[in-house]
Design a protein that fits this description.
The protein has helices at about 15-25, 40-55, 70-75, 95-100, 115-140, 145-165, 180-200, 210-220, 220-225, 230-235, 240, 250-255; strands at about 30-35, 60, 80-85, 90. By secondary structure, the protein is an alpha+beta fold. Strand 3 (about 80-85) and strand 4 (about 90) form a beta hairpin. The termini are far apart.
Length: about 260
Amino acid sequence: MADSSSSEKTYHKRATGAALTTVKKRSRESELKLYGSCFCPFVQRVWISLEIKGLDYQYIEIDPYQKPDALLEINPRGLVPALQHGDWGCYESTVLLEYLEDLKTGHPLLPPENPQLRAHCRLWADHVNRKIVPLFYQCLQAQDIEKQLEHAEELQTEISHLVDVADGAGPFFLGPQISFVDVQFAPWMLRLPRVLKPYRGWPDPEIGSRWAVWMEAMEEHEAIRATTSTDELYLDSYERYAENRPDTSQVARAINAGRGLP
């Protein structure tokens, strides 16, 4: 009898497609370093921001299950993304996005000199983190069909709340320019058709809807495309989540335990 584990797909350790081109372009030594993993959506948030802002940075691919000392010196928990800027380092994707904003270099993702609109963006970025992201993993990791459908419905509801408060004309959250909420949500938007659709039957957006307009704009944005690998990478890397294998990740363990994301 063949060993069933031999057919199991695993996470990729090297970007593919357009993302690999960007990795090669960003491989030269730089004072600003991004430690990341090619399949990680939290990493992609920061990666997109760096590309949008046109900052000079070095991308360093990390196997999250073989944590190097350079990463552990920045984040003792060994989680990516992590940024090193000279002799200073920090981690947590939302914190890093805020840090890049504070550098005041390149295209701002939070509207400058508009504290109310900045607060509005932070509020809905928090909605992405507290509502949408956990539900994505709950839907993907659930093994019971009824639970999958329940979480999918909840996820659709929370996405609808976000779409409802987005600028009516779009195509992005605040209008014609990509901004903070778009970047916070982008990696999971990309993974809906690439991961949740094949594994859980996630539906395509209704043609002509505000949601469809937003999705199309995100898929076509230069910085997002530059940090996105081929579909196969995501399909392979997320199989272990879809099967809810033991020790898949700290995120998966937190979801299974009903805890907040690490």
